[in-house]
């Protein structure tokens, strides 16, 4: 019996996504506007957002979404949103994030960034942790 790791499965989705000519990562205009507003509010309008995946959380992985005052790392992918906001993604995270759309949602239960990730097999009830 052959077993496949979650990285193999996510890599297969990434390859299919790239072959279809779809964007590797999309930031909606509403999300980009909020990102830019937060960067300006903290006094670093030229900084970027680092987005990635790390091990942890109740289902295996959690998202990393933080400010970055440093230039991108050597192999980072730099995604530029409509208003010029830059999002840095490291290569290993991109395997799991390929095809993700970053939204900003406002609703009755609050507001915040939402990640529509086609690679996720399941997530926890709180939405903070995912599995691939």
Automatic annotation (TrEMBL):
Coiled coil: none annotated. One of its GO terms (cellular component) is cytosol. It holds the Pfam family Fe-S_biosyn. GO terms for molecular function: 2 iron, 2 sulfur cluster binding. One of its GO terms (biological process) is iron-sulfur cluster assembly. It comes from the Bacteria. Residues 25-128 form the Core domain. InterPro entries: ATAP, ATAP_core_dom, Fe-S_cluster_asmbl/transfer, HesB-like_dom_sf. Belongs to the HesB/IscA family. This is Iron-binding protein IscA. It comes from Enhygromyxa salina.
């Amino acid at each position: 019996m052959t077993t496949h790791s979650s990285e193999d499965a996510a890599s297969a989705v990434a390859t299919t996504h790239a072959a279809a000519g779809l964007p590797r990562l999309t930031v909606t205009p509403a999300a980009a506007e909020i990102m830019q507003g937060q960067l300006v509010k903290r006094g670093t309008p030229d900084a970027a957002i680092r987005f990635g995946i790390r091990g942890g959380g109740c289902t295996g992985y959690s998202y990393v979404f933080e400010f970055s005052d440093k230039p991108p790392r050597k192999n980072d992918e730099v995604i530029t949103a409509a208003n010029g906001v830059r999002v840095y993604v490291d290569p290993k995270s991109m395997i799991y994030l390929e095809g993700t759309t970053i939204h900003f949602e406002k609703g009755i239960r609050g507001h915040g960034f939402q990640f529509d990730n086609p690679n996720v097999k399941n997530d926890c009830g709180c939405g903070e942790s995912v599995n691939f």
